[in-house]
Design goal:
This is HicB-like antitoxin of toxin-antitoxin system domain-containing protein. The protein has 1 helix and 3 strands; from the N terminus they run E-E-E-H. It is an alpha+beta fold.
């Protein structure tokens, strides 16, 4: 299955979160955070039936005047 990941930097850590399910992980690099997220997703779905389809998402930026 393919998931959408959002990676942000929080302090000294990179945090990777999926958009489709509420799973997150972290790492010292972006690559490590994504690898840890992949492992977390595999463990989350281990022994569970996979969903038939995940919802489609539109990822967009929004600009506001502050």
């Amino acid at each position: 299955m393919r998931f959408t990941a959002v990676v942000t930097k929080e302090g000294q850590w990179y945090v990777a979160k999926t958009v489709e399910v509420e799973i997150a992980s972290q790492g010292k690099t972006i690559e490590e955070a994504l690898a840890n997220l992949k492992e977390a997703l595999e463990l989350y779905f281990e022994g569970e039936p996979l969903p038939e389809a995940l919802p489609e998402h539109v990822i967009a930026t929004v600009e506001v005047a502050i």
